[in-house]
Amino acid sequence: MKSIAPSRSETPPGLVFRPMVWYGKKVIESVRLESRRHALFLDFDGTLADIAPRPDAVRLSSEVPQVLAALQHKLGGAVALVTGRPMNDVDALLAPLRLAAAYEHGAVLRTRDGEVLRTSAPDLHEALATARVLVQKYPALLLEEKSSSMALHYRQAPQLEKICLHALAPIVTGRPDLKLLHGKAVLEVKSSRVHKGTAIAAFMQQPPFRGRVPVFAGDDVTDEAGFLAVKQMGGVGIKVGDGPTAAKARLANPQALRQWLIDNARREHTS
Ligand SMILES: [Mg+2]
């Protein structure tokens, strides 16, 4: 894979890149967050938190809520989560911190003021019925029924990937209102009208995000829509982990991302 490190001329104002060697490639190690300039958007699983065998088995390092609170203060409140998880899940893991957040890949937004905005849920009856039959037949599968989407996890049985895909793909074909996302050991069926890019764009219309440069970190294919959105807004995507991406920067793993957050939270306020 070719290097994704940008030339200096591509560096947006206020962002400092330091190349490092990672897996033999030059990648961008640091994007320096400035207190009056940047807005920060973060995916959760595989980005803030290490991937776990099951979504409910995820454990978050104890320093994460503190670091996020410090960054929220530093960036004037312009910090939001952008996750595929439903709302209550993430709140419980970050308590007592409550950030602005997009849940279910942008189908549910909670603003900085706590207002919850939901897009109308698509008809998932057929997808859910199919997934329930699969789970009954293969107990190693895990079905998450969310308010506006559903996720079928096969992390405990990766050999079932094709069976799940072949069962769900035909349901989405011919349904322009639905989108099938193929993430890390998970298939999700959601509305095609929203994605992580629309969620970030919606936040960027509102204070305290409006007028800032968006920086978005994520690890999975579902984050690519977010990377494209921030690119269009003059911001920076940070891909966590390996794989092709539209993101401009890359960090090796969630641990590296957490360290980057800690470094930025500790840095003196600059404008
Ligand atoms: Mg993720």
UniProtKB/TrEMBL annotation:
UniProt gene name: otsB
EC assignment: 3.1.3.12
Keyword terms, alphabetized: Hydrolase, Magnesium, Metal-binding
Domain of life: Bacteria
PANTHER family (UniProt xref): TREHALOSE 6-PHOSPHATE PHOSPHATASE (PTHR43768)
Protein name as annotated: Trehalose 6-phosphate phosphatase
Matching NCBIfam families: HAD-SF-IIB, T6PP
Pathway in which this enzyme or protein is active: Glycan biosynthesis; trehalose biosynthesis
Catalysed reactions, as listed in the record: alpha,alpha-trehalose 6-phosphate + H2O = alpha,alpha-trehalose + phosphate
Organism phylogeny: Bacteria, Pseudomonadati, Pseudomonadota, Betaproteobacteria, Burkholderiales
UniProt-recorded Gene Ontology molecular function terms: trehalose-phosphatase activity
Cofactor(s) the protein requires to work: Mg(2+)
Record SUPFAM superfamilies: HAD-like
Keyword Metal-binding: yes
Family affiliation: Belongs to the trehalose phosphatase family.
Function: Removes the phosphate from trehalose 6-phosphate to produce free trehalose.
